[in-house]
Amino acid sequence: MELILEEDFPMLGFVGDRVVVKNGYARNFLIPRGIASEVSSRKARELEHKLAGINAKKKRLKEEAEKLGTEITGVPFSYTIKLGEQGKSFGSITNRDLQATLEQKGYTVERRQIKLAEPIKAAGTYTVSIQLHSEVAVDCTVTVEAEELKKAPKEDRKGKKRTRNSEDEELQASEAEGEELTAEEQAIVDEEAPQE
């Protein structure tokens, strides 16, 4: 079924666009919600009248989109991504992140309008296109910096680095100094002692 869109619907198009969809989708979803109207010969006069209104709305929306586009190009898109030991990234930057940044700045843009081919998983500068209207698209610069994670050594409760060798050295040092062993330390010594 051929329809003409009365409202912006990013999955199909924008105001005034002619689209072809399945009959059920048109009759059960698009037409009842006022998103689109049917294009047919019996409604020709009504459609011409609607087109005049739709074209005026389309022109107004295009002007608003151009204004919004100039404002959005000034928004800084800066992100930090964490990298592991071998340079593997933890997480990625997606169109959801870009949408959240725009919402924080007070701009309403649908996630589908942000054209990001694949999630960003490496540091660098990227160009992302945002489709604000059927005739208006703006390119924004996204800057991603890398933050390397450092592997921290394991520490015991006292804050000392803990290894098996260091425990043995501590026990030997305390025995050499003639100190008495605690019950815990004595159990470790007895456990490690060769049994005959």
Task: List the SSEs and their pairings.
Layout: E1 2-5, E2 18-20, H1 23-30, E3 36-38, H2 44-72, E4 77-83, E5 89-90, H3 95-104, E6 114-115, E7 124-133, E8 136-148, H4 164-176, H5 183-192
Parallel strand pairs: 4-8
Antiparallel strand pairs: 1-2, 1-3, 4-5, 6-7, 7-8
Describe this structure in words.
The protein is 36% helix and 22% strand. With 196 residues, the chain is an alpha+beta fold. A hairpin with a 2-residue loop joins strand 7 and strand 8 (136-148). It is elongated, with a radius of gyration of 33 Å.
Low-confidence stretches: none
Task: Count the domains.
Answer: 3
CATH topology of the largest domain, what is it called? Ribosomal Protein L9, domain 2
Q: Would you tell me the overall average pLDDT?
A: 78
Number of helical elements: 5
- The separation of the N and C termini measures 91 Å
Element order, helices and strands? EEHEHEEHEEEHH
Would you summarize the structure shown here?
The chain is of the alpha+beta class. The protein has helices at 23-30, 44-72, 95-104, 164-176, 183-192, and strands at residues 2-5, 18-20, 36-38, 77-83, 89-90, 114-115, 124-133, 136-148. Helices cover 36% and strands 22% of the residues.
Features:
alpha+beta, 8 strands, Ribosomal Protein L9, domain 1, five-stranded mixed beta sheet, 22% strand, three-stranded antiparallel beta sheet
